[in-house]
TrEMBL record:
Protein name: Nudix hydrolase domain-containing protein
Top-level taxon of origin: Eukaryota
Cited Gene3D superfamilies: Nucleoside Triphosphate Pyrophosphohydrolase (3.90.79.10)
InterPro entries: DUF4743, NUDIX_hydrolase-like_dom_sf, NUDIX_hydrolase_dom
GO molecular function, a single term: 8-oxo-dGDP phosphatase activity
Transmembrane segments: none
Record's function text: Probably mediates the hydrolysis of some nucleoside diphosphate derivatives.
CDD domains: NUDIX_Tnr3_like
Stretches assigned to the Nudix hydrolase domain: 196-337
Organism: Triticum aestivum (Wheat)
Family indicated by similarity: Belongs to the Nudix hydrolase family.
Stretches assigned to coiled coil: none
Length: 365
């Protein structure tokens, strides 16, 4: 395995050297502008969202008008935010491994992969225009381990073109539960259009017949969406761990919830969305969990990723979603799903079925 890693590292180094030539740098400069614009707009939260505090959120939360809860327009807006750019799907080509589609890559981004010809095979169409038909892996990469090492070296070689490296691997499959073809750096997932899975948990209490949600406010130094509101517990699903074990792990790290409590988290379904922004194609599926907590439980963050928590009545949390952009975008969808399942959104609301189905706008497989 060490020999394999060394050979691919050397190949990546050669490719980087070729890409340092003046001619190639000019080509990259021409390509980079739209790429970097897309990256910055998708990784940096809106300025308005980054500048609020709990006082602002709680003020909006308490402004509750009679009958106002039947207005679903604010929820539809949040669904739309997670499902942008569907008209641009034609700009992407299939990424195939072992004759299975595992992702989608922007035609412009494929130009950055051409130098890594010992890792990627870019197949052109037969229409005489040299257009890209699909991307696959070099035939010499036969095992998941070889592919993971080789593509990992490519991502290192691409440098700033893929910002926010997490050093966390996501499994690459055609759909959930299917064979894993290789593992990919989490930050690179949208650039290869792979399906990414995560777990999100609504932690709530019930007192005197009224339910309240524990809501977290992300640390101001978080790499993504700093300072925004979030679930009590949420996280991506990395390679080699089950959804339930991941929830238990995240419960302890993010909220100090002991295993004796977190094992009671109940799987309640999934939401999905597809978002295209520049060269990034997010195809996410989030497995949803509910956990009813003791009324005297107070969460405590253990990993430094959460600034603070607040216990907010469910109708007030719904107000924040409908009226602001304070929540991390995909959290909105999971809480809207909670509102359906717990009866806060009912069939008498105009647009009920349309909103319900929109929570699974992505490929939920």
């Amino acid at each position: 395995m060490v020999a394999i890693a060394t050979s691919f590292s050397a190949a990546a180094a050669v490719a980087v050297a070729r890409r340092s030539s003046p001619a190639h740098l000019q080509l990259v400069a021409r390509r980079r502008l739209p790429f970097c614009t897309a990256a910055s707009s998708s990784t940096v939260p809106p300025a308005a969202a980054a500048g609020f505090g709990w006082a602002d959120a709680l003020r909006v939360a308490s402004e509750f008008g009679v009958g106002d809860e039947s207005d679903l327009s604010g929820y539809f807006q949040k669904v739309d935010i997670c499902n942008r750019g569907m008209g641009n799907k034609g700009e992407f080509v299939e990424f195939m491994v072992e004759d299975q589609v595992v992702g989608y890559i922007h035609k412009g981004f494929t130009e950055h992969l051409r130098d890594f010809h010992d890792v990627f095979t870019i197949v052109s169409g037969s229409n005489g225009k040299n257009s890209v038909e699909h991307v696959t892996l070099h035939s010499s990469l036969r095992t998941p381990e070889d592919r993971t090492i080789a593509i990992g070296d490519v991502i290192k070689g691409l440098g700033e073109l893929i910002p926010g490296i997490r050093n966390e691997l996501y499994p690459v499959t055609s759909s959930y539960g299917m064979p894993v073809y290789f593992s990919l750096e989490r930050a690179a997932a949208p650039y290869f259009g792979i399906k990414a899975y995560g777990v999100h948990m609504n932690g709530y209490i019930e007192k005197h017949g009224e339910k309240s949600l524990w809501i977290g406010k992300r640390s101001d130094v978080k790499q993504t969406y700093p300072g925004m509101l979030d679930h009590l517990v949420a996280g991506g699903l990395p390679y080699g761990i089950s959804c339930k074990e991941n929830i238990i792990k995240e419960c302890e790290e993010e909220a100090g919830i002991p295993r004796s409590m977190s094992t009671n988290a109940t799987s309640v379904g999934a939401i999905s969305y597809m978002d295209i922004n520049g060269f990034r194609y997010k195809r996410d599926v989030l497995f949803c969990y509910d956990l009813r907590l003791p009324v005297d439980f107070v969460p405590n963050n253990e990993d430094g990723e959460v600034d603070s928590f607040r216990l907010i009545p469910v109708p007030h949390a719904a107000n924040i979603i409908r009226r602001t952009d304070f929540f991390k975008p995909n959290c909105n969808l999971v809480i809207i799903d909670f509102l359906f399942r717990h009866g806060y959104i009912n069939p008498d609301c105009n647009g009920y079925l349309k909103l319900l189905t929109s929570l699974r706008s992505g490929d939920c497989s």
